[in-house]
Design goal:
Elements (H helix, E strand, L loop, with lengths): L2 H22 L2 H19 L2 H8 L6 H33 L2 H6 L7 H27 L9 H27 L4 H7 L2 H4 L18 H6 L2 H13 L6 H25 L4
Helix pairs in contact: 1-6, 2-4, 2-6, 3-4, 4-6, 4-7, 4-8, 4-11, 6-7, 7-11, 7-12, 11-12
Keywords: Antibiotic resistance, Cell membrane, Membrane, Transmembrane, Transmembrane helix, Transport
Main location: membrane
Pfam families: ABC2_membrane (PF01061)
């Protein structure tokens, strides 16, 4: 078999392994998935009227705030799901299975590829589930065309790949699963400091540059524009640049850490 065929075969095997682990131990994924769902329901049904009045023209419109909120919650779902990837990678590194893989005739990069592809698939499934909850409580993207939906799916996938590679690097650099969970926490906290819940213009002046130019805000505004027809402006290319940059950084960081021989 060629080197490429071996890499694909071994990566597929590692992908099946990670998906089986996720199916047999679903508690971590469910716990991470519950956070964005709870925040969605909390902000819509508890704070919805107040928030919509505060960022709108003074009138309370919970449905309008739901439409504003959903794109940010979908991005937050990806961030929270990738925390599970960091924990999974750290668990593999500390329980000795990676040392066993190093002695076997398998493609060296297949272990990381299996984790990344498995995590991206979990992100997609999590986004679908949270999106279903949003639709069930009234979210509609009636102005989105087929091309808009295609671009939205592409953006969500690109964000999933970028954040997963960063999470894998965090898992490899952590001494145990608990530390990996803590190190990857910014992936779920950063959306709280973006335009997910309120517009950047409504934030304190000193904080606006932080919120505007962090990775999540451009992606949220781009997704919001695709689904709701709002202005995207420079956020589209900025989101792509952030995603590609983070993906490359995470890939280089992860592969360099994984290539180190165990002490």
């Amino acid at each position: 078999m060629s080197s490429l065929s071996l890499a694909v075969r071994d990566s597929s095997t590692m992908l099946r392994r990670n998906l089986l682990h996720a199916r047999r131990y679903p508690s971590l994924t469910l716990n991470l998935l519950l956070s964005p769902v709870v925040l969605l329901l909390l902000f819509v049904y508890i704070f919805g009227d107040v928030m919509s009045a505060g960022i709108g023209d003074g009138g309370a419109d919970r449905s309008a705030y739901l439409a504003y909120l959903v794109p940010g919650v979908l991005l937050m779902t990806i961030g929270s799901t990738t925390i599970g990837s960091a924990v999974s990678v750290a668990t593999d590194m500390t329980e000795g299975i990676i040392a066993r893989f190093r002695t076997m005739a398998i493609h060296r990069g297949s272990v990381l590829v299996g984790h990344v592809v498995g995590s991206v698939l979990q992100c997609v499934m999590s986004v679908v589930l949270v999106g279903a909850v949003a639709v069930a409580i009234g979210f509609r993207a009636t102005d989105a065309t087929a091309l808009d939906w295609l671009l939205a799916v592409g953006l969500l996938t690109l964000v999933s790949v970028a954040l997963t590679w960063i999470a894998v690097g965090m898992g490899l650099s952590s001494p145990n699963a608990e530390a990996a969970s803590n190190n990857a926490l910014p992936l779920m906290v950063l959306p709280l400091l973006s335009s997910a819940f309120v517009p950047v213009d409504a934030m304190p002046g000193w904080f606006q540059p932080i919120a505007e130019y962090q990775p999540f805000t451009p992606a949220i505004e781009t997704l919001r524009g695709l689904l709701l027809g709002t202005e995207i402006g420079h956020n589209g290319w900025l989101a792509v640049v952030w995603c590609v940059g983070l993906a490359v950084l995470g890939y280089v960081w992860s592969t360099s850490l994984f290539a180190r021989e165990p002490k």
